[in-house]
Amino acid sequence: MVNSELADLFADRTESGQYGYLVVSHARGALTFTGALTGQVDGPITRLAAIGDRWIFRPAYDTEDARSSTDLFDRNIRAFGHQIQATIGDLTVAVVGCGGTGSAVAEQLTRLGVRSLVLIDPDTLSAPNTTRVYGSTLADVGRLKVDVLGDHLERIHPDVHTTRINGTVLSKAVARELASADIVFGCTDDNAGRLRLSRLPYYYLVPLIDCGVQIPADDRNTITGIFGRVTTVYPGASCLICRDNIDLGLAEAEVRSAEEQRQLEKEGYAPALPGVEPAVVAFTTLVAATTVSEFLERLVGYGDTPTPTELLLFVHDRMIRANAIEPRAGHYCDRSRNLLGSDGDMYLGLNWAS
User: Fold this and answer.
1) CA 75, CA 96: separation in Å to the nearest integer?
2) What number of other Cβ atoms are within 10 A of residue 3's Cβ?
3) 116-120/92-96 β-pairing
4) 63-77, 117-131, 276-290, 320-334: lowest mean pLDDT where?
5) CB of 58 within 8 A of CB of 33?
6) 182-209 CB burial, b ≥16 within 10 A, e <16
7) Averaged over 22-51, what is the pLDDT?
8) How far apart are the C-alpha atoms of 346 and 171, rounded to whole Å?
9) pTM of the complete model beyond 0.90
10) Distance (Å, whole) CA 236 – CA 228
11) Is residue 132's pLDDT more than 70?
C-alpha cells in the first residue's frame, strides 16, 4: 500500500521514472532482505552484493536455499559452510581467455560448485595447446577453445551451464557480456584486453581477478626465471594501470591493423609485438590455483585483514610476495572518484574494435 502511494511521487521527483524499495533484516546469522523495482527496470530484487576487501552476495529471503548438492560438496562445506557454498553455486563467473591458465581456473571453479560460466576466447585449439588446456585432446585440434572447454566443464556436472563467446573483449558487444557477470577472471595475455577489463570494477561494480605467467628464457632455451601474478581489482583498490601491469604501448599496438603496425615498427614509432612465449602446464596450473584461492579468500575471509590485492610468485626462488599498492591520485581508480553508473554505452573511456 505504501509503495503504491510513494511510487509515482518518488519517480517524478527523481525525474527517472524509476522507483524501488528494500527491506533489510537479519536471519540465520546473515543479512537478508526483500525488495523490488518498478519503472524502466521492473521486477524483484533477488540479490545484494557488497564489493570491497571482502565480497558478500546475499539472496532475497524467499530465494530457495541451494543445498541440494550437500553430499557432492561435503568437503567444501566442512571447510567454509553451507552459506558460502550456496553463494558459489549462485554466481555467474566470466573467464576471459580459455588457454592454459583460463581452462585451469574454469575447471577449479566448476569443481568448487560454480554452475554458470561465461567463457570468452577468440581462438581455435592448436596441437601445442593440448599440453596445457584442460579438457582438450589432439582430437579437439581445430575446434573453438570455448567449445572444447565448455563441453569439458558441462561433463563434470549436469547442472553446469556455459555461455560460449568466440570473440575478444576488444569488441564492445563482447565486453557488454561482462557487465552481467558477478566476477570476472582475466586470463588473457594481451595488454589491450587487460586495459578494458581493468575498468570494469569502477564503472560496473564487477570485481576482477587478473592473472598471468611469465617464463623468460635465454637464446639457448634455458629458463632464467618463472614468474606468476594474481591481482584482485575492485573499487577502492588500485587498477592494473596504476600497478604497471599493462604496457600501454603494446596495448595500443595490439589494436592496430597488421599493416599499420609493421610500418610503425619499421619507422621506429611502435614497439614490436612479442612472439610466442614459453608456457608450461605446471606453472599455468600453479597460478590458476593461486587465482582461485584468492577468489575464495574474498568470499570466506580466512587470511589477513586488510587482504593484499596482489600476489607475485617467484617460482624459481620458491617465494611469494604480497602488496597493496595505492591508486594514483586523480586516476579512474582513485577512491575519491565514483564512476559507477556513469558509463551508459560500455565505452569505459576507450575506443572499441566494433
Assistant:
1) 28
2) 13
3) parallel
4) 63-77
5) yes
6) bbbbbbbbbbbbbbbbbbbbbbbbbbbb
7) 83
8) 10
9) yes
10) 23
11) yes
C-alpha torsion sign, points 141, 147, 151, 153: positive
Distance, in Å, from the CA atom of 285 to the CA atom of 75, rounded to the nearest integer, reads 22
CB 52 within 8 A of CB 236: yes
The full 3-state SS of 215-251, as one line of letters, equals CCECCCCCECCCEEEEEEECCCCCCCCCCCCCCHHHH
What CA–CA distance (Å, rounded) separates 309 from 247?
20
- List pLDDT tens digits, range 267-277: 455 565 566 78
Q: 340 vs 123, which has greater pLDDT?
A: 123
